[in-house]
Design a protein that fits this description.
By secondary structure, the chain is of the alpha+beta class. It is 28% helix and 26% strand. Helix 1 runs antiparallel to helix 2 and helix 3 packs antiparallel against helix 4.
Length: 251
């Protein structure tokens, strides 16, 4: 069942997502060669608690960190660690908070120093695909219009969309219905209505879309060691079209 949110609930979701946006904005500034993802995890958790919020991911189904920090061929759910980042890496940070009963959730991929041309293009195409998908989140549209827009843009660029992980509804639960694949045909799925709130999150691989899970039970990596990028925004469908709740103002 897809839960329609009242304007007051959307405001609470916006508040949670703006905390996420501020923290991600700060983390982007901290990412540089020599920094560890464990450093970033500690900073994110401190900033969350300072904002009178809770890290949404820590303890969720047993996940042990505040951040998902995925480097290079890691697709999603990477564990923060003490290994210093190095020039040429790309780092995907997925982060969420819980405040006043509602969740915020967003993700970015960040260049560490100077990166390869293919990494730059992968990041650009993934972020473009996110916004093209968001643009389809309009009243009376179909859910799969979002999916189709993302897949079309990604595959036209010669990259592949991850199938194993998808976007989702968001609200008083971190993961609500509906699931939002990043691939699909036009005109399928539920009709979109004002009050629906989604976390749209294309994960895009340089090569094959296939992934495997490491022995930690969480970290997903590409099967062919190709790079992967991940961008995500939480949005609300309104009478006037989509509103990005997790937009980073001034970034």
């Amino acid at each position: 069942m897809v839960i329609l949110k009242s304007p007051q609930e959307v405001d609470k979701l916006r508040h949670a997502n703006q905390i996420v946006a501020r923290i991600l904005k700060r983390l982007k500034k901290e990412v540089k060669p020599g920094v560890t993802t464990l450093d970033l995890d500690g900073l994110a958790e401190k900033m969350t608690l300072d904002a009178d919020a809770k890290p949404a991911f820590k303890g969720y189904r047993g996940f042990p960190f505040a951040l998902c920090a995925s480097v290079n061929d890691q697709v999603v759910h990477g564990f923060p660690n003490k290994k210093p980042l190095k020039t040429g890496d790309i780092l995907s940070i997925d982060f969420g908070v819980l405040v006043d009963g509602y969740y915020g959730d967003s993700a970015v991929t960040i260049a560490v120093g100077e990166i390869s041309d293919v990494a730059k293009r992968l990041m650009r195409v993934t972020e473009e695909a996110l916004y093209l998908g968001i643009a389809k989140a309009v009243p009376d549209g179909r859910l799969s219009d979002i999916s189709h827009a993302i897949q079309t843009h990604v595959e036209k660029a010669g990259f592949s969309v991850v199938r194993k992980f998808v976007g989702h509804g968001i609200g008083s639960s971190l993961h609500e219905e509906p699931q939002i694949p990043n691939f699909g045909q036009l005109g399928m799925g539920i009709r979109l209505k004002p009050g629906m709130t989604f976390a749209i999150e294309p994960m895009v691989n340089e090569k094959s879309h296939d992934v495997r899970i490491l022995d930690d039970g969480w970290t997903a990596v590409t099967v062919d060691s190709g790079l992967s990028a991940h961008f995500e925004h939480s949005i609300a469908v309104t009478h006037n079209g989509p509103v990005i709740l997790s937009a980073q103002d001034g970034s």
